[in-house]
Specification:
By secondary structure, the chain is of the alpha+beta class. The protein has 15 helices and 13 strands. The longest helix has 19 residues.
Length: about 400
């Protein structure tokens, strides 16, 4: 082990005995009291020394016996420590590809801020290569999502759509100008390959033959604005039946939409969204029928900057899920409209009449929560933020900085 204080966190001294790691409220952590000798020793935690050398440095800094190990344990418990040499098999393979790892170093630094175990960030980054994402829709939003996921290290990103590329499909982060007139799917797949930090994994037989099993995640980013505004439950029903997580995203008129991220049988789906809307508005089914029966517009409104913004947020939610977190798009639909550009979240709860089973799961979770609350006399809510424990108790002497 070669310990190092996470370099992504800027360090500053609040006073002679208190050091702050990080700047933003989401990540800043304060450690204290820290004496002068320990403060000097912190400078040695840069990943270039093993434990034996660090103990020697500790003696040179006049730290008492055992203090070096105590400091390292304290930093590790606070989530401030990383290991420059830790690596599982997948991470070791990524280390052996310095060209690819260099492309992903900013992503690795970011992951260290949301993980706690030393070496965990590199493991998560390397694990992306084993994931498989299918993006349905090769328009301004879909192709940009696919390229972002590929560039972030996802091993297999497959894009599907029909027709040819039109001039208005060209975007800086999506399809290039030279693809105009080409088959949309092939042009998108080529753009995805060029975005990857290393050679993409070979497509699986299931992906080549159209089989759904094997997809870690499916992103539904249709070019049709009606399909974005009111996703057809029949389209996503096979994904729900096979238990495939899927994320809705796109632009409708001048509004960008991300979510919901559907965890089949656990969270709300497109059918739940439709049923809730019909409950609130009796005219909703009639409107949807009219919108769907009309011929799609050849050039629907899709602001370039809005589409890019939606693609970036959708890709971030997808990566959070692939990395083992539960992003806020589970059970919610994020929307942003021009020109104010204020993001808002619309809750999408499982509907009791929907056959997806999400309502039964939610009911069971509420019952479990009620029983736990009665037993502990504290109604703590289960985490909806991350499958990784993000609210672990802090060791004595550390606290969140109010910045």
């Amino acid at each position: 082990m070669h310990p190092m204080v996470k370099p992504a966190l800027r360090r500053g001294w609040r006073d002679l005995n208190t050091v702050q790691f990080g700047m933003t409220p989401a990540h800043a952590l304060t450690l204290g009291p820290v004496d002068t000798a320990t403060g000097s020793f912190l400078e040695q935690l840069n990943g270039t020394r093993g434990l034996a050398l660090l103990r020697e440095e500790g003696r040179r800094c006049d730290l008492p016996d055992g203090q070096v190990d105590a400091v390292l344990e304290h930093l590790a418990q606070a989530g401030l420590l990383d290991d420059a040499t830790a690596a599982g098999p997948a991470a070791a393979a990524l280390r052996d590809r310095p060209d690819a790892l260099d492309r992903l170093r900013p992503d690795l630094a970011s992951l260290t801020l949301v993980t706690s175990r030393p070496g965990e960030a590199l493991d998560l980054l390397a694990a992306r290569r084993a994931t498989r994402v299918q993006v349905r829709g090769a328009g301004r939003v879909g192709v940009t999502i696919a390229r972002l996921l590929s560039a972030a290290g996802v091993g297999e990103v497959d894009v599907r759509d029909v027709g040819e590329v039109h001039p208005w499909d060209v975007t800086p982060g999506g399809l290039p100008a030279k693809s105009v007139g080409a088959r949309r799917t092939e042009a998108a797949r080529g753009a995805v390959r060029r975005s990857a930090p290393q050679a993409p994994r070979r497509r699986s037989p299931a992906a080549r033959t159209g089989g759904e099993p094997g997809n870690t995640l499916v992103v539904l980013a249709p070019r049709d604005d009606v399909a974005v505004h009111t996703p057809d439950p029949a389209v996503s029903a096979p994904l729900t039946e096979t238990g495939t997580p899927h994320l809705h995203a796109g632009v409708v008129e001048a509004t960008g939409v991300v979510g919901p991220l559907v965890l089949p049988g656990r969270s709300a789906c497109a059918g739940c969204l439709h049923a809730h809307r019909a409950d609130r508005d009796p005219a909703w089914p009639r409107l949807v029928a009219q919108w769907r029966c009309r011929r799609p517009r050849e050039v629907p409104p899709c602001d370039l900057t809005l589409a890019t913004t939606v693609a970036g947020l959708a890709a971030a939610h997808a990566l959070a899920f692939l990395d083992g977190f539960v992003p806020s798009s589970v059970g919610a639909r994020w929307e942003v409209s021009l020109p104010a550009l204020s993001w808002r979240a619309r809750t999408v709860a499982p509907h009791p009449a929907c056959p997806c089973g999400g309502a039964e799961k939610a009911k069971g979770e509420r019952t479990s929560m009620d029983e736990e609350a009665r037993e502990t006399m504290a109604g703590q809510r289960p985490t909806t933020v991350s499958r990784h424990r993000a609210d672990a108790a802090r060791p004595t002497g550390t606290w969140r900085a109010h910045v």
